[in-house]
Prior knowledge:
Elements: H1 2-12, H2 17-56, H3 67-76, H4 79-91
GO biological process, one term: phosphoenolpyruvate-dependent sugar phosphotransferase system
Keywords: Cell membrane, Membrane, Phosphotransferase system, Sugar transport, Transmembrane, Transmembrane helix, Transport
Membrane topology: Multi-pass membrane protein
Amino acid sequence: MMPLIFMILGLILRLSLSKALKAGLMVGIGFIGLSITVNLMIDSLTPVSHALVERFGLNLTVLDVGWPARRRWQWGRGLARWSFRCAWLLTC
């Protein structure tokens, strides 16, 4: 969905079709790369966090992976449309 939004936004801002398409594809590739990175990071850190809990007797229930996971969640849930609308309304 986001690559299409960026492509349309590029066309609205008078980019050529090829540049808008390239921008949309780059955004899509970037999100795929970010998703792969976050998944690999979670797969690597989960056993470590479980070992820390076992070793030191901690009570940890959440593995914080930082902003990439939150961004992936936001874009995946459709909140981006509302974010763009709110940002647009605030700047106009």
